[in-house]
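Action item from last week, closing it out:
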Amino acid sequence: MTSDTGPTEPPPGRLIASGRAADVFDLGDGTVLRRYRTDHDVEPEGRLMALLGSSGIPVPAVHRVDGCDMVMEQVTGPTMLDDLQRRPWRLWQHTKTLAALQRSINQVAAPEWLTTDDAVPGADVIVHGDLHPMNVILGPEGPVVIDFTNAGRGSAAFDAAISYVLMATFETSGLIDRIGQRLLVRAFRRTRGAALVDAGLDDACNYRLADPNVTAGERNRVERLRSTSA
């Protein structure tokens, strides 16, 4: 179905989102197709989302997986980041929600079939690995967590720390955005637990630096964060 250059068939619907590894298409029937651009088996990701959904974690329902394609429920609404940009006074509320969502994911025991990256410490709980305000949709029935590409086995400390690192080192432009970023990461560290974040910070920085998709600007910020935490 796929090759190293990704699928060649025409787009199945309207492109509504595009990330570093995958595109999302609106299929027009209340579902979306998330399609990776390179060979990537989405079966483990879909299986994990089904497990989390059955455990009470708010995730999109997965309808079908096939090679690098995943068809899932379409959740309408802004991302948490979009809402923060429009209504910055909701920062504390959204930060508490983000921390609570991550905590609920980490409370689910990792199944035996779930693998992880060798660079991720711990193997006792499920970690999202990429939880931040862009990966939470504020749907009609409440917040929904998306994008479990980096999920696997790990520790709650690592998951908390990688979220902190991602939010703290994301490249922003403009004074207002930088102030908002600082307030966000400080609030997250407090609500998630400073001791927990600090316990996984060094591993999270090293993990992030090993990612080839990290930009030069992000890499510099991660290195500075790691040096100040040493």
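Closing note: Residues 1-8 have pLDDT under 50 and may be disordered.
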